[in-house]
Design goal:
Structural class: alpha/beta
Number of helices: 18
CATH architecture of the largest domain: 3-Layer(aba) Sandwich
Strand order of the largest sheet: 1-6-5-2-3-4
Strand content: 5-15%
CATH class of the largest domain: Alpha Beta
Radius of gyration: 26 Å
Number of domains: 3
Distance between the termini: 28 Å
Largest sheet: 6 strands, mixed
Shape: elongated
Length: 428
């Protein structure tokens, strides 16, 4: 679950939003910026950004354009969040070297519902709109689509788009299914223009071709002007793809990426990324971020910027309580916090856990505990490891002998073998 309901100040609608985006490094491409500034100064504008439900969660990379929607709301504009139930059935070729696997209807429905929940918790739905592009796509026949949409786009124009050119030149080529994606997204812009007066589409820089196709279609079908703006695809300073770890993407869903893992991810970003991520992945004012960065430079070993970044992102996505739990768990795991009931409870779901019907009560309670939790394979393995000083229970090294096991708060015992293997025993 994402928790994005925070009271952020709203400004008077105007082009100041563009200055804020530029100060954050969030403008990659834009249609005529002077015209867009004039339009923004004239009054509130309606804009949208689409998110295809290729999984049952968005990931950290999606936060950049998603927060741009929220930033526009802060400046008094109206944001539309689009869950691409229709486009998700086809797959966007932009930024990919191979074709996506097509989703079955049941999976797609689950993904759309999950993505919609996440969108509605970041973007303020009291002031915004949430749509699924299946609303205007399902039931439209292929002949009607070709006649009403396809005739407004030339093949030459589509072939000239970088997202198409790069795939045509790739080893895997481009199927007609993915080739048609641009038409679907362009039509989305037209539909939102007609239904909601939408005049601006935003997205990642890999969406520029799709966005301009929509702008051109609005011009051809309605002789009206529209605008487009893209944000850069964020990468880490070490060249790694943003939001990726050795295990895969860093997800917004707590079921895929634990709040603790999300918090740790941002605590460990390099110094060269912290200031930029504070600007692009939080709603903190730019001048406040400058003060944080100055404090960080004065004491880099304190990792001030990373701590503020990890807290801000985790709180925005999972809530303030999740930040506290993440910090409690880290304190226990890395030895900087008290090993008490609250800290050990925070480890649940983070380290392996075994539920016990009762505390070990034989003549060797510690060895029995080690075997019961699977930390040691047998009593003899447990005795040998204890003799080598390799076992800690609740942070204390276990000496040879049959010392009783103390369960904190009568419930928890944290067993550790070596430096990395940890296991939580919980009395039922």
């Amino acid at each position: 679950m994402i928790h994005g309901r925070h009271a952020y100040p709203r400004g008077v609608p105007g082009a100041d939003i563009l200055d804020d985006l530029r100060a954050r490094g969030l403008v990659q491409d834009s249609t005529d910026e002077s015209e867009l500034r004039q339009r923004l100064d004239a009054g509130p504008i309606t804009l949208y950004c689409g998110f295809d439900p290729t999984a049952d969660s968005l990931h950290i990379g999606h936060l950049v354009p998603l927060l741009v929607l929220r930033r526009f709301q802060q400046h008094g504009h109206k944001a539309i969040s689009l869950a691409g139930g229709a486009t998700g059935m086809v797959g966007d070729p932009s930024g990919r070297s191979d074709e996506r696997n097509l989703l079955d209807t049941a999976t797609l429905n689950v993904n759309v519902a999950a993505v919609e929940r996440q969108l509605s918790h970041i973007v303020d739905m009291d002031e915004g709109v949430l749509v699924d592009n299946r609303e205007w796509t399902v039931g439209v026949g292929v002949l009607d689509f070709l006649r009403d949409v396809g005739k407004h786009v030339t093949v030459g124009t589509m072939l000239a788009k970088e997202s198409v050119k790069s795939r045509l030149e790739s080893e895997n080529g481009l199927s007609f299914t993915e080739f048609s994606y641009m038409l679907l997204q362009a039509n989305d812009f037209v539909e939102l223009h007609d239904r909601h007066g939408c005049e601006l589409q935003i997205g990642g820089s890999d969406q520029w071709g799709n966005i301009t196709a929509g702008i051109d279609m609005i011009r051809r079908r309605h002789q009206a002007s529209a605008h487009g703006l893209t944000v850069p695809l964020v990468t880490r300073s070490d060249g790694a793809k943003f939001g990726k770890t050795a295990a895969g993407a860093v997800w917004l869903s707590a079921d895929r990426t634990l709040p603790y893992e999300l918090h740790q991810y941002f605590l460990n970003v390099p110094d060269g990324d912290a200031d930029r991520f504070l600007k692009q992945l939080t709603l903190l004012p730019v001048d406040e971020i400058a003060a944080i960065s100055a404090e960080h430079e004065a004491a880099p070993d304190q990792r001030v910027a990373q701590n503020r970044l990890a807290d801000a992102v985790t709180a925005m996505i999972h809530g303030d309580a999740a930040v506290r739990q993440a910090r409690l768990a880290a304190g226990v795991l890395f030895g900087s916090g008290a090993i008490d009931a609250e800290g050990l409870a925070a480890l649940r779901g983070i380290v392996p856990e075994t539920s016990l019907d009762g505390a070990p009560g034989s003549d060797e309670p510690v060895t029995d505990l080690l075997v019961a939790t699977g930390v040691c394979s047998s009593r003899s393995d447990a005795r040998r490891t204890i003799e080598q000083g390799g076992i800690r229970v609740n942070g204390e090294t276990v000496a040879a002998g049959s010392d009783p096991v103390t369960f904190v708060d009568g419930r928890f015992a944290l067993v550790q073998r070596g430096k990395k293997q940890r296991h939580l025993a919980v009395l039922a």
